[in-house]
Amino acid sequence: MFTEALVSRNAGGHVKLDEVLILDDFLGLREIMVVQHTDCGATHFDIPKFHQTLKRRVSEDLDLENNNFGFISDLKESVRKEVHLMRQSPLMRQEIKDHIFGFIFDIKTGLLEQVA
Ligand SMILES: [Zn+2]
């Protein structure tokens, strides 16, 4: 049996809830896999430096303290957060909430580790 998979890629593998809801409405999703990967650029981001760049560009008064722009400091925690975001949303169908899983793709070994 073959199953179609729709792949939505973005920087850092962060879930766009609006996009998931719309795709579910159009296509009737059955399962969702959140996959982030080792050595992701989002884990190498220098947030304080980026904040300084934006402040220089816009204004030193910018309050960026609570905006990490998708930086990932802990991959497992990040995947679990994305899965949790969908599972706790009142906008997601219950049937799909029970079929949301989170993985880390190891780019060196090619293996997927389920973490949520
Ligand atoms: Zn990446």
UniProtKB/TrEMBL annotation:
<keyword id="KW-0862">Zinc</keyword>
<dbReference type="InterPro" id="IPR001765">
    <property type="entry name" value="Carbonic_anhydrase"/>
</dbReference>
<dbReference type="GO" id="GO:0004089">
    <property type="term" value="F:carbonate dehydratase activity"/>
</dbReference>
<protein>
    <recommendedName>
        <fullName>Carbonic anhydrase</fullName>
    </recommendedName>
</protein>
<feature type="binding site">
    <location>
        <position position="40"/>
    </location>
    <ligand>
        <name>Zn(2+)</name>
    </ligand>
</feature>
<dbReference type="GO" id="GO:0008270">
    <property type="term" value="F:zinc ion binding"/>
</dbReference>
<comment type="similarity">
    <text>Belongs to the beta-class carbonic anhydrase family.</text>
</comment>
<keyword id="KW-0479">Metal-binding</keyword>
<dbReference type="InterPro" id="IPR036874">
    <property type="entry name" value="Carbonic_anhydrase_sf"/>
</dbReference>
<feature type="binding site">
    <location>
        <position position="37"/>
    </location>
    <ligand>
        <name>Zn(2+)</name>
    </ligand>
</feature>
